Amino acid sequence: MALLADGVSRLLIDGKLTSGGAGGFATVNPATEEVLGEAANADTADMDRAIGAARRAFDETGWSTNTELRVRCVRQLRDAMREHVEELRDLTIADVGAPRMLTAGAQLEGPINDLSFAADTAENYEWTQDLGLASPMGIPTRRSVVREAVGVVGAITPWNFPHQINLAKLGPALAAGNTVVLKPAPDTPWVAAVLGELIAEHTDIPPGVVNIVTSTDHALGAMLAKDPRVDLVSFTGSTATGRSVMADAAATIKKVFLELGGKSAFLVLDDADLAAACSVAGFSVCLHAGQGCAITTRLVVPRARYDEAVAIAAGTMGSIKPGDPSKPGTICGPVISARQRDRVQSYLDLAIAEGGEFACGGGRPADQPAGFFIEPTVISGLTNEARVAREEIFGPVLTVIPHDGDDDAVRIANDSPYGLSGTVYGADPERAAGVAARLRAGTVNVNGGVWYAADMPFGGYKQSGNGREMGIAGFEEYLEIKAIATAAN
Ligand code: NAD
């Protein structure tokens, strides 16, 4: 059967697809502003039931100890998504405004494939480690260290790469033996709701193990952070909301995983191929209209070649026209909403107020009367002190900043409240690697290397968050450690 056949999505609570206690809300195509259909709008009673169901499924069923069942179920979800991949592609383009070309990677197929890594990791994991016999305090003891699921996971996710973020939480959390309540962003409810349909209709995932609660009410996310029945909150979104999640979770001392904002730097060393580096920097900030937390939005270039660097970046970005994300050649689609477009525009106005200039772009494209489009924009003439160089804009906007050598470039890159990612371009590999090693950031690309992969941990330093998603480290976020000592007399 087709997904969302009647144009209305439902919640998944305790194994049942149900409507929301608060009725429904419209989901909008950001490229056209057309209403795609309706999503179930959960209320607090729905969230309460979802948390209760997840708690029961964890405490009263064999899910957390039956690794074979979990591995099978995660693979079933992967296979169901693969079977429906073309439907999911169209839905993702419409619901997220994601350029079609990105659905071959991180917007869809990448995260589907990465479910294999979660299943394989659980299948091959050393759940019990034998530390052997010892005699601490003279008492002969056999010691082992056991890894087991944390319990009920509250997963709260944003709208920018929703499959990637939903599945990078769901896959490892389930494979590790947890039960989950997923509270996705209200801007992209369908991308999450289809998971509910696929889980209910194409997998053996038992009732209550996964609950998907779409809602316009952000307070339902806060419920997850506060509720004592939830053992871990895994959150991706803005640093401001992450702070609130951490504070809400403090009362019950629950584990908190946070993947937050970024203002990452692209460092061009003075021996680098300036044209190649600045073109890559300009291109990458246009992908998905700059709505990626790890996108390098500060281009830091040798002062002596500043004007040249600005011109190259503007040449690249000025030639990328924002447009219809369903077309195969589109790189830069819309931003997610009118609110987000207005927020980006307010930062562009701020850039001028701070004394900056636009080398290209600067506003809404005249040839796109509908849809939430913003022109790729290069800001020049500002230092790293400017607010547009310090705050996350989340649009196709690049600020070019001069540096006075490697030490200064590293200082500028690290002079940020964030520490999510970074890029270094330089001709001498040893020198570039040395600069990369000094960056206070969770992922670093040297000369075009790609850190995005199922087995690579992703996450931030400083106010970009704590913990890691993906890789073995991302799997282990969802595990507790139990040390068992048995007297060996
Ligand atoms: P947000 O942080 O407001 O929302 C993310 C998720 O948290 C959503 O599901 C939302 O409903 C939920 N939420 C909101 N308030 C909550 C609360 N008090 N407690 C618990 N959950 C809560 O992010 P947004 O509105 O989607 O975007 C705002 C800004 O966040 C963007 O402009 C961008 O700067 C940043 N952002 C960052 C990322 C990232 O991956 N780092 C992704 C999307 C957005």
From TrEMBL:
Record: active site: 259
NCBIfam families: aldehy_Rv0768
Keyword field: Oxidoreductase
Matching SUPFAM superfamilies: ALDH-like
Superkingdom assignment: Bacteria
Keyword Oxidoreductase annotated: yes
Name assigned to this protein: Aldehyde dehydrogenase
Alphabetical list of InterPro entries matching this protein: Ald_DH/histidinol_DH, Ald_DH_C, Ald_DH_CS_GLU, Ald_DH_N, Aldehyde_dehydrogenase_Rv0768, Aldehyde_DH_dom
Similarity-based family: Belongs to the aldehyde dehydrogenase family.
Pfam families: Aldedh (PF00171)
Residues covered by the Aldehyde dehydrogenase domain: 25-484
